[in-house]
Amino acid sequence: MSRLNGLVPAALARPFTAIGGVLFLIAAMLPWATFILNDGPYPEKSTLQFFDAPFELTGFRWHLLLFGVLAVIVTFAPVRGKERVLRSFGWGGLLIGVIGALFIAGKGGGIGAITAADGATALGSIVAIVGGALLVLGASANGLGDIPEWPTSLFGWTGMKQRLEAWVVLLIAFAGVLWLVAQTLTAGGIGGAAFPYAGPVFLAFLGFAGGLIGALHGVGVTRWVSQLSEKHRPFSIVVLLLCAFALPFPFTGAGSQYWMQVAATIGVYAATAIGLNIVVGLSGLLDLGYVAFMGIGAFVAANLSGVAASALGWNLPFPLAALIAAVVAGIFGAIVGSPTLRVRGDYLAIVTLAFGEIFSRAAQNNIGDLTGGASAMPGIPPVTMFGTAFNEPIKLFGAQLPSGVLYYFMIVLVVGLVMAVFANLKNSRMGRAWIAIREDEDAARAMGIRTGKAKILAFLVGATLAGLAGAIFVHKLGTASYDSFKFLESVTLLAAVILGGMGTIPGAVLGASLLFVLPEKLREFSDYRLFVFGLALVLIMRFRPQGLVPDRIRRAEFAGETAEGKSIEEIEEQAVLEQEQADREPEAPAAPKEGRP
Amino acid sequence: MTTSRLEVPGSVRIVAGVAVVGVFLWLTDALRKLVDGGFTLLLQQTANGIVLGATIGLIALGYTMVYGIIQLINFAHGEVFMVGAFGGLAVYRWVLPESVRGDWYISLPAMLLGGVIVAVVIAVLMERFAYRPLRNAPRLAPLITALGVSVALQEAIRLWFPDAASAQPFPRVFIDAQVDLGPIELSASQVLLIVVSVVLAVLLQTYISRSRMGRAMRATSQDHDTARLMGINPDRVIVLTFVMGAALAGVAGVLYGSNINSVGNDIGFQNGIFAFTAAVLGGIGSLRGAVIGAFIIGLIKTLGGQYLPGGTQYDYIWIFVVLILVLVFRPQGLFGEAERVRA
C-alpha cells in the first residue's frame, strides 16, 4: 500500500497516530449498536447486547483497547520501525471496526444501528474506523522505514549462554504461537444459528491477530525469531511438535471434541496443500485436478479396509492400507504427469483438469464397483492401532482428552512428515531443479536438468502425499464419497496454496487453515461462502499475488525485486548512476558532487 | 514444444500400449452396437450431435478469439454463456408483457437482445476489473483469476436470481413444430440453432478477415506493441474481442435454453469445458477450427453416449479423453499454427 505514503504531511504524522490511538480507546468504551435486535422468531438468541453495553469489555473491546494504548505509547516512544507497527495497529483496528459495523448494520437494520436511532447513540464502530484510518494515514506519512535487525543475542552473550537465551526466546515464541492458534481456533465459538456472533467475532479476532503479527513483524521480532529458529533447527522442531501435541490439553481451551475434529480436518487439508505446493509452488506446474489423487487414495484405502460396499472385500491393517493408497495415488500421479513431457503452461492445467473430471465422473458412476457411486462407501472402520480405536477418548498425563484426539495426533505426525519431505526436497538437488524449471524450463534444460523426469517426479511425490492424506481423511470421516473430491475442492486447495504463498510451508498451512476454518466459523453465511471465495481469488491475484507468506524468490518475481528484497528498479538506477559517475570521473576527477544538477 | 522422442519413459509406452488394446476392444463392442441399433438411430444421434455442436461452437468462438488476442484461457467464458441464458429468461419473465410472450417474432428477438446485453456487460466488467490489471502478471495469475470469476458468477446467479438455486424452466419461444428430415425429426428450434450458429460463424469470419476493425484485431493478436505503433488502440481491440465473444455466448445461451427448456447455474461450466475442448481440438486461435471442433465434440458426445461402453453416463468422459489426446499429441489442434487465423 505504498500509495498511502505521504498522503498526510510529515508534520501531522504524530498528531494523527496519537489521535487515532485515543479514538481506539474511546471506541472500545462506546456502545456499538443502538438497539437490541430481537424481533421475530429467528434468530431468537441474536440480540446485539453483545455489542451494546458500554464499558463492558468483551473480546474485541479488549483488542481495541490494547491497540489504542500501544499506539499512543509507540507514537511517543523511541521505537525503531514504529511506522510499520503503528500502521499494523491501524489496519487491525480498522478491520475490527469495519467488521463490527458491517455486521451490526446488516443484521440490525441499516445505518441507524451503528449511528443514532430511537434516542440511543452507538458510534463505537465508526469511531474505531476513523481511528484506524488516522493511524494508517499518520503512520504512512513519512514513508515506511526498514525493519530493524536484531542482534543474535540481546545481551551480547556468546557460547552456551547465547544458546540458552535463544532456547528461552524460542520457547516463549512457540508458546505464543500455540496461544494464538488455540485462540484463533476457538474465537467466536462454534458457528451456526445457535451463536450468530461466531462469524464477526472470529473475523474481528483475525483483525486483531493480523494487527499484532504485523506489529511484531514491523519491529523486527518475527524476523529475529525465525533467524533464531533457523539457527537452532532441531530444538525448534521439537518444541513446535510439542506445542502441536499440547493443543488438545485443557489449558489451551481448544481441547473439545469439536475443535479437535476441525483441527484434524485442517491438518489433512494442510498436508494435501503442502503436497500440491510441490507441484504448483516448486515446479510451477498448475494442477487443477489434484484432489483426484486424494480421492484415489481415499477409495483405495476404503476398499482395503473391509467396507461392505467394496467389490474387493479385503481388510488390511490401516498402515498397510494407507501405504498402498499412497503408492497407487503416486502411480496415477506419474501417469497424469506424463503429458507434462509435451504440454506446458495453460494446456497442462487443462489436461490435469480433464483427468480430475474423468476421475470424478468415474467415481460418480461407481466404476468397477470400487467407489460406491452416488450412494458412497459408508462404514469405513476407524483406525485401530495398539488395541485402541482412534475415535475414542483417552487419558493422557492425568488429563481427559476428547474423542478424536488420536486422529489429531496422527495427523500432526503426518503433517510433520510431509513438511519434512517438502523441506528436504526443496533444498535438494531435485528441489533446485524444480525451481529452475518453474523459472524457465528451456534454461533449466540447457543447464542439464532432465526436465521430463523432474516434472513427472513432482507429480508423483505430490500425488503420493495426497493419497496418504486421502486415506486418513476417509478413515476419520467413515465414508468415502465422490462428492468430497470434486473440481471445486481442487480449486479450493489451489487457492489455499496461492493465498498462503506458493512454495512455502507456513504459507500452505496458513492458507489451508484459513480456507477450511472460515466456513466453520461463518456457517450462518455459508450460502455466500463460494461467492466470496470466487471474489477472493480475483482480489488476491490482483492485490497480493505472492500470497500471505511469500517465498523469497517468488516475491522477487512478482514485485520486481531481488531475493534480498531490493527493488530491481533501484538497483538499475544505482547502476546507471555509478556508470555515469565512472564516465565522468576521468574527465573531471576533481569535480565536486554538488556540481551535478 | 520440440520434446525429443527419446525421453518418453518405458512406463508411458506400456500405458499407451494397454490403452490401444483397450480402445480396440471397445471399438469392436461399439461396432456391434452400431449394427444392432440400425441406421435411423445413427442418423438421429448424428443430428443430435450437430445440434449440440452448434451450441458449443458459438461458445468456442469466444474462447478462441480471446485466446488468440491475449493468450488467456478465459475460463469464465462458459459462465458468460450461462448468464446470457438467464438474461434471456429475465426478459421473458419481467420485461415482456403476457400478451406478446406467445408471439415468437417478438419474444425471441427481445430475449436474444436481453441475453446478449447481459452477457456483454458481464464480459466487459470482467475484462476491465479482473483481467486487464493482470496483463503483465505471470501467466498462471489470469487463469486463477478466471477460475475465481467463474465460481463467483455461478454463485451470484444462484444467490440472487430468483429461484435459481434449482434449474429453472425456460420457455420454448420459437415455433413449436417438428421438421421432418426423412428418417429423422428435428424440432424447429434445433434447426434454428444450427442455422444461427453457422450464419454467425460465417459473418464473424468475414468481419475479421475483411473489415478494418478485423484487421486491427489480427494485428493486435500478432504483436500488441507494433499494433500500437500503427495507431491501433489494443485496449479497445481487446474489449471488442470480449464483447463479440460474449454476444455470441449470449445468443447461444438463449437458444440453448429454449431448446433444452431448462437452465441452471451449472450449464456454464460443463458447456464451457466442451467449448474449450472444441477450441483446442480445432486449434485454439482459429475460428474455423473452433466451429469444426465443436461439431466433432458434439458428435463424440452423442455417438459415444450411444455406442461406447458405459452409455450416456460416460459420454462426458470421452470428451475429456479426446481433450487429453489432442493436447498431448497435437497441441496445435487440427488447424495448426500454419493456418492460424488468430481471431
Name the descriptors:
heterodimer; A: 597 residues; 3 domains; two-stranded antiparallel sheet; 22 helices; B: 343 residues; ABC transporter involved in vitamin B12 uptake, BtuC; 13 helices; 4 strands; 73% helix; 3% strand; globular
How would you characterize the overall build of this protein?
- The complex is a heterodimer of chains A (597) and B (343).
- With 597 residues, chain A is mainly alpha-helical.
- Chain A has 22 helices and six strands.
- Chain A folds into three domains: 2-234, no CATH class; 258-487, no CATH class; 553-579, no CATH class.
- In chain A, strands 1-2 form a two-stranded antiparallel ribbon. Chain A has a two-stranded antiparallel ribbon with strand order 3-4. Chain A has a two-stranded antiparallel sheet with strand order 5-6.
- Chain A is globular, with a radius of gyration of 27 Å.
- The two termini of chain A are 31 Å apart.
- In chain A, 48% of the residues are buried.
- Chain B has a single domain, classed as ABC transporter involved in vitamin B12 uptake, BtuC, CATH 1.10.3470.
- Chain B has 13 helices and four strands.
- In chain B, helix 3 (77-95) runs parallel beside helix 6 (140-160).
- At the A-B interface, helix 13, helix 17, helix 18 and helix 20 of A face helix 1, helix 6, helix 11 and helix 13 of B.
